[in-house]
Amino acid sequence: MARAKVGPTLAAMSAVALVAAACSSGEPEPEPDPRPAAPLATSPIDWNLPAAERYHRLATYPVYLNRPPAEPAETETVAEISAVTEDGNTVIYTDATAKRVGFVDITDPANPAGRGTLSLAELGNADDQPTSVAVAGEHLIVVVDTTGGDFANPSGRIDVVRIADRSRVHSIDLGGQPDSIAVSPDGSFAAIAVENQRDEEFTPDGGDEGDLPQPPTGFVTIVDLDGAPQDWSARKVEFDVEAARAAGLDTPADLEPEYVAVNSRGQIAVTLQENNGIAVIDGPTGEVRSIFSAGTQSVEGIDTAEDGTIDQTGSITDTPREPDAIAWADDTHVATANEGDWKGGTRGWTVFDTTTGEVVWDAGSSFSELAVLTGLHIESRAEAKGPEPEGLAVTEIDGRPVALVGSERSNFVAVYDISDVTEPVFRQVLPATNGPEGLLPVPQRDLFVIASEADDAEARIRAAVTVYGYGEQFEADGGVPPFPSIVSGAVDGVPIGWGALGALSADPSDENRLFTATDDAYGPARVLGVDVSVTPALIDREIVITDDGEPVTLDIEGLAAHPDGGFYLAVEGSEGADNELVRVAADGAISERIALPADIADALGSQGLEGVAVDGDTVWVALQRELSTDPAGIARIGKYTAETSEWQWYGYQLETTEHPDDWIGLSEIVVHDGALLLVERDKLNGPDARVKALYSVAIPTDAGVTGADEQPQVLTKTLARDLLPDLRATNGWVQEKVEGAAVAGNGKLYVVTDNDGLDDASGETVFLEMMAP
């Protein structure tokens, strides 16, 4: 079976650990720097597509802004499956959580505008839920689940709504619980997958909880769209149990159609996800032409253990694909997103020949590799279905068929040229907000719209509609920098795992290199080398932090490379006493642990050491929040003299916002041009973000206080750079955690956001490059 290629084949290289000069807690004894002779990881992908050949992100619109006037902003509201009007100007999305459909005007794709919602309570019952939508001329077809939790008696309908005035003009009973809908390219009919889904908490006789069979079985309904909506009629297409059994489908007596797609010949492709099958139906006649198994796949080189480590030595064996979304790649091939359900999921996508049922291409581990290369690996799903490919759409760009495959858990969409269905070619990765569900090409306007379903106001995750435009005509609105702005290379064909970058430091020996580090979202603790002479910036080496020869996990929030070799790490602890400066040799071995003064540690809360910088024999640190002994809004900057092991402390006045749940803190400190640069940020993100900035204070010449009970001198600060415009320029979700900053020897300032390992975060890492202040 063919294995997917992600751009060029991942390079085979020797592993490398960065070794600079050995250091110790005593007198440093520099050694020759072996780095020039050491091989480095290189990027397996050329990420730099010309503007004319890629998608540009134009806007990210949170759908809570489209809520009814009286609804509180924190009410959960999502965007799932979407459709677009024939002129390409209005996106219509389902919101099953709030039980309505929403309308967003994208006439100006860079400035989407909410046009309100239509509640299903106005169409039927307040407990009804929309599962899908489609547009047929001037009408919207809303697929409605009316089951209400009674899985043994599923029910549903379609409502036909006149788009102009949002009035219902017709309804058709479906006789079961529906899922997806697709309209034929010629507009003559619509196909609806009537799933009659299983109850995951029900235990059938002789089975386990959630097992099949759970009758009634599902089917497909075809609605002929001839004439006025009142004249539309429905046809039921049932599957032959014996044919399904002969094809090797799981539990053929209870088939559950999930997703439908229609080709130019009027053929309907249907995924039977829980049964691990695919069926092809002739739309005009309703004849089931074929039914075949989606088969199993063995995948190597993936992370399969939720152990806090990006360990890509795992594998899955003979696992059912259990495809979710399906799309026609051409009139004889379909592509499926193999999300999996109760028994399977192979973390990739597949192309099938519908005439034979044979696999002509499979992504293997490459989809998971994409997540690792771009810092979007989600460790909390490693044992389940990894990046969990769920959505899939096919469109045409510049006369070429293109597949768009969405990762529900790693929050991205991968773009592939499928001109040759037996050898798809990776082109681009597009970031989304949490839970990209609906993938909607708008080919008449060269647009692509992603609807994301995850929404949790308390965790500051909000569902959104993200708009992309293809081609150089959208370049001016496409955001700077493009995504990804930082990636990793590969060692022996395996991507360097990374994410949750909470620190940056210049490399004293190379003006075009930086160091960064992962925090405790991923273990073991590592320092990563970054080449900033290339675009995107490339993580090409890693140093594992060890104590007595054993790898350790540390919450590294600050990092400073010492000119004499090795590093200082600012390690944040869950309690004050756990905060410490850690001196590390160039090979990653811990040589010294430096505790904070006991009274300072006792006065710390859960937010402690956040940044560290080195200036000769002096080490500067930033504490994120106030000590309990200090006035509100005054954080501390610490000065540690290595020669005498003495600490002194200075005050820093934090900004304020009016948000009731917000707090402000420091997240980085940098020595530059005779001053200290400090990154200050709020806890807000998206359109709520207010404070993401770099401030400068003169390096103090007066002595600081030495105890927690002494009030420190508050240093005068000046704004060096407001980072909000830079973050907004990406046209993505404004990230909360601006965590790392460094001025490289090349005179440029670099800033990076911490993606929290995708826990309560979209996962996108923004790496900014600008001239130093």
Descriptive account of the structure:
- The longest helix is centred in the middle third of the chain and has 8 residues, at 366-373.
- This protein has 773 residues and is mainly beta.
- It is built from four helices and 54 strands.
- Mean pLDDT is 93; it is low at 1-38.
- The protein has a domain at 35-47 and 485-771: Tachylectin-2, Chain A (5 Propeller).
- The chain starts with 54 loop residues before the first strand and ends with a strand.
Helix content: under 10%
Annotation field: number of helices: 4
Which architecture of the domain at 35-47 and 485-771 per CATH? 5 Propeller
The strands making up the biggest β-sheet line up spatially as 31-37-36-35-34
Give average pLDDT, whole number. 93
Strand content: 35-45%
Number of strands: 54
Using the coordinates above, name the CATH class of the domain at 35-47 and 485-771: Mainly Beta
CATH topology-level name of the domain at 35-47 and 485-771: Tachylectin-2, Chain A
Radius of gyration: 28 Å
Shape: elongated
Distance between the termini: 54 Å
Which consecutive residue ranges, at least 5 long each, have pLDDT under 50?
1-38
Structural class: mainly beta
Biggest sheet statistics: 5 strands, mixed
In short:
Residues 1-21 form the signal peptide. By secondary structure, this protein is mainly beta. The longest helix has 8 residues, at 366-373.
Describe this protein with a few key phrases:
single chain; 773 residues; mainly beta; Tachylectin-2, Chain A; five-stranded mixed β-sheet; 4 helices; elongated; WD40/YVTN_repeat-like_dom_sf; signal; hydrolase; Mesenchyme-surface_protein
